[in-house]
Write a structure and sequence with these properties.
CATH class: Mainly Beta
CATH superfamily: Electron Transport, Fmn-binding Protein, Chain A
Radius of gyration: 19 Å
Shape: globular
Number of strands: 15
Distance between the termini: 18 Å
Largest sheet: 8 strands, antiparallel
Oligomer: single chain
Order of helices and strands: HEEEEHEEHHHEEHEEEEEEEHH
CATH topology: Pnp Oxidase, Chain A
Number of helices: 8
Number of domains: 1
CATH architecture: Roll
Strand content: 35-45%
Amino acid sequence: MSVRWSDEIDEVLVGDLTVAAAYVTPAGGAVVTGVAPCGLVDREQGAVGFTTSLGFAKKLDRIIRNPKVALAYHAREHGFSTRPEFVLAQGVASVDVTPSRARLDAFRPNAEQFLGAVKQGRLWDPLLREYYGERVFVDVEVVRMTAWPNLTAAGSPVVFGANLAPVGAAPQRPPQKGTEPRVDVDHAAGQLAALPHRLLAFTGADGLPVVVPVDLAGHDGAGIRLVAAAGLLPPGGRRAGFLAHSFRPQLVGLSTRTFTGWLEVADDGTAATYSPHTSKGFWAPPRKNLLLVSNGLFAKYGVWKARRSGVAEDLAKLAELAKLNADVDDPRAA
């Protein structure tokens, strides 16, 4: 039976401009990144989703191989809802690598509502052909929808679907290279301080990723100090992903910083130290035409690279195999 949620939560899902999407890594950690869902919600089917590009082949490969994902609806800026809730949708993804023209056409009004009118013309059409026409859809069948009463995720949540799992899996074994920071902590802390939305992702006890909001509480040689509402962070140490970002209307002008690293949580469950191991960033100019040019060129390169290397074909075959095996080996099982 499909998970059903309330009218209030549906308003959040169809209204947010951007969400934090998390997926599980082969080592048992989680990676979290910002995506634009553009109102992709099917309440009757208990599903949510987002689109992405073939240029992010590694992300797509990992989602297809382990389809347990989570979407955190964590910010109301520049969207269409003023609801106060922090909403976490956890579920099982299927990836449509080669969507039909009908699906792409049906998606266009959603994209224009959130991101502005589609650019067309003699110069724009060839530049943006891949950006508009080579989208990949990630559809998520919701297993659990959890809503906290505020954007800090403090207080008692309301749960739709599967019962809320324990906060986190058992502590993990430290990586062979150690848990110490591998990037400059002072520099990383400065980058994070400039970005207002900060989210931490880790793998839950049922294998589904968990994404929670956190705040900064200083830093030192051991890493970045974090605080979170009671009951959100799992005790002990584990691999975790970190996303910090800011954005403007229609995502014209945004800044993103993502990390992977090691999380160590104090016994009280509210304070933690994050040791960043890898760092990636992206900045987009607050000028529509310049942003579209960069998006168009990135999409062209990503599609060309994916096809040239055979990744596009491999992803399509892998996605089809995953669909065929879904009924035999249900990935929602813990």
